[in-house]
Amino acid sequence: MATALNVHIPEPAAAGAGDFLTTELRTRQQSIAEITEMIHVASLLHDDVLDDAEKRRGINSLNAVMGNKLAVLAGDFLLSQACVALAALKDTEVVSLLATVVENLVMGETMQMNTSSEQRCSMEYYMQKTYYKTASLISNSCEAIALLAGQTIDVAMLAFEYGKNLGLAFQLIDDVLDFTGTSALLRKGSLSEIRQGIVTAPILFSMEEFPQLHAVVYKGFDSPENINIVLEYLGKSHGIQRTRELAMKHANLAAAAIESIPESNDDHVMKSRRALLELTQSVITRNK
């Protein structure tokens, strides 16, 4: 994203100053990438504690190896390091964006843990929670990159829209793979979401076709029998297909955002934009 947006940087008068400014800009943008990754990993460490997860992508989770206390502290340490790095940028707008990400992560997890029966069956509620838990980090990080590059508000919002829709598409495909993938490919247990009582897009779409599923979802998924009933109806419905179609819609919106950025004749810029477009397709065609 940085290379795709680093255009029209003003030429300084002093000889050699241009190279310095370009290097400084890339260093600051790299800091955003590092901050984003620290926030991401911290959220995974905390999620594993909340979910009592024993595995993370086929590897023993930190809480399973070292215990919950150290896992929580490790996540807190990463968040503190992210805050230090963020403060060093001395850009209040960027600080606000990344602080919003942390707020959204907590809000998303709270929405997932405390839902009424009506909320669990709401696609709007599900998509809002998905934005908070997954897409907010990508969208706000992309916008931060644009702001550091001195881009206009319009371009910064296009960067935001790219990250938002890419994140939503990624999570929707993740929800599909929870039902269609295998443990060997995903390196995690299939049906992990439904076993935790989490209602995702494929089930929500199935419920639109088979209203009788509402009664099963209201009861929860503590009983293996209820899980089997949901899976039976899911197999009869277009829930998987409609979720893929929704993911495709968001992937296309992400691509449209990149294509709407003002044109550039710079080969490196255009190569980076093509890579961002290819990523929108990779997200929806992946099998793990």
UniProtKB/TrEMBL annotation:
GO terms for molecular function: metal ion binding; prenyltransferase activity. Belongs to the FPP/GGPP synthase family. Pfam families: polyprenyl_synt (PF00348). InterPro entries: Isoprenoid_synthase_dom_sf, Polyprenyl_synt, Polyprenyl_synt_CS. It comes from Hibiscus syriacus (Rose of Sharon). Its cofactor is Mg(2+). Gene3D superfamilies: Farnesyl Diphosphate Synthase (1.10.600.10). The lineage of its organism: Eukaryota, Viridiplantae, Streptophyta, Embryophyta, Tracheophyta. Keywords: Isoprene biosynthesis, Magnesium, Metal-binding, Transferase. This is Solanesyl diphosphate synthase 3. The keyword Lipid biosynthesis does not apply. GO terms for cellular component: transferase complex. GO terms for biological process: isoprenoid biosynthetic process; ubiquinone biosynthetic process.
